[in-house]
Amino acid sequence: MQVAYRFRLYPSKTAQEKLRFHIELCRWLYNRLLEELNRAREGKRKLTQKGTQALIVRLKEEKLELKEVHSKVLQMVNYQLWSNIKALAQLKKNGKKVGRLRFKGKGWFKTLNYNQSGFKLQGRKLTLSKIGEIPIKLHRRIEGKIKGVIIKRERSGKWYAIFQVEDEPKPLPKTNKAVGIDVGLKHFLTDSEGRKVENPKFYQRALERIKVIQHWLSKKKKGSKNREKQRIKLAKVYEKLTNQRNDFLHKLSRFYVNNYDVICVEELQIQNMVRYHNLAGRILDASWGKFLQMLAYKAERAGKQVLKVNPRGTSKGGSSPLDRDYNASLNILKRGLSGLGRPLEPAEVEPLLVEIPASFIVEAGSPLR
Fold it and tell me: DSSP string of 88-101?
């Protein structure tokens, strides 16, 4: 199975200039290939993915600087273009209203994709073809065969290497336990064993600082150095927000995968909920979708099961003394296990509900134990 490892890079000023130059060339290539596709469409000519791939050789003579970029990186630009085209076609097939693919403006292209070759990881140095050595902070061991690396520049100006790794599943010991999870807004989740995990509300807590920085950003002259400094300051706040949220979700999902063989959750249509719900902002801040995604891939790697059940009516039924969210988690567990043909063991009528602060999960190495 495919897994990803993300590490911070510390390129020198010279290396940063090369990286930015290569990214800008990739942006030019993406737009140029898209332009050729549009021309072919207007002339009622068929241009395939192999056709645009072959065009790269000719474009290297038109723009000699392209020869300074590793060939695999240029090929992956073409792959990205066609992936976007296929994604739009699928949306249209699903009944969505879509327009044509847009050209990439300055600043919108942020990655270099080294697929299979063009890179070498040795010790604490990552060597990239035609760029050179870059110090890397390896905070964990990479397990499996590295198939490629994506170099990404965040809006904050920080650089990261994302390694795409092919690894074998690593089953965890069986616990012979199952759990039902009900996600919510007041509490991030309530499970069928009586835990109620506080919603950390990372975005709401950072909102005041974001508003202040945005206010001062709007006062700065466009194109000025002061505006760029303020923009980076805002990007760093959002980056910290993302890191805090991911850390919380990783630790929480890891706990459930480590301690349960079967994890039952609701099959939520989050996009629809956000579109019509007056609490859309709070739903997005909660990041239920990312949490369920983390549960799924970690469970697959560990030989565990995540079962999605129909969410309709999960809050109904049960004993009147039961907490509403706890009752929903029991119903979710019951539906999940019934699909496996396994009975649900009777639960206590009045469970001891345990409130767990979000800060405890973020700070703890092994949360909820």
Answer: HHHHHHTT----PP
Select the highest-mean-pLDDT range: 27-31, 104-108, 208-212. Answer: 27-31
HSE value, Cβ hemisphere, 13 Å, CA-based, for 259: 14
- Provide the 3-class DSSP secondary structure of residue 106: coil
Q: Domain extents for the chain?
A: 2-166, 178-363
Sign of the dihedral defined by the CA atoms of residues 102, 159, 112, 137, in that order: negative
Q: What is the dihedral of CA 167, 150, 227, 204, to 10 degrees?
A: -20
d(Cα 295, Cα 293) in Å, to the nearest integer? 5
The token pair at 203 is 């975005």
Q: What angle separates helix 71-93 from helix 49-62, to the nearest 10 degrees?
A: 140
Secondary structure (3-state) at 160: strand
Using DSSP's 3-state secondary structure scheme, residue 34 falls into: helix
Estimate to the nearest angstrom the gap between the alpha carbon of 52 and the chain centroid: 29
CB atoms inside a 10 Å sphere around CB 246: 15
Helix extents (H) in 260-345: 270-276, 280-286, 288-302, 324-340
For residues 301 and 196, the answer to whether their CB atoms sit within 8 Å is: no
Tell how far CA 369 is from the center of its chain.
27
- Residue 323: strand, helix, or coil: coil
Query: What integer pLDDT is reported at residue 352 of this predicted model?
Result: 66
pLDDT tens digit sequence for 21-38:
999 999 999 999 999 999
**Which among 263, 303, 341 is positioned nearest to 174, based on CA atoms?**
303
Is residue 18 within 8 Å of 65, Cβ to Cβ? no
Contacts of 342 by beta carbon, 8 Å cutoff, 6+ apart: 178
Mean per-residue pLDDT, 214-230:
91
DSSP 232-281: HHHHHHHHHHHHHHHHHHHHHHHHHHHH-SEEEEE---HHHHHHH-TTHH
- Rounded Cα distance between 166 and 234, Å, is 35
> Which DSSP symbol is given to 67?
G
Average pLDDT of every residue of the chain: 87
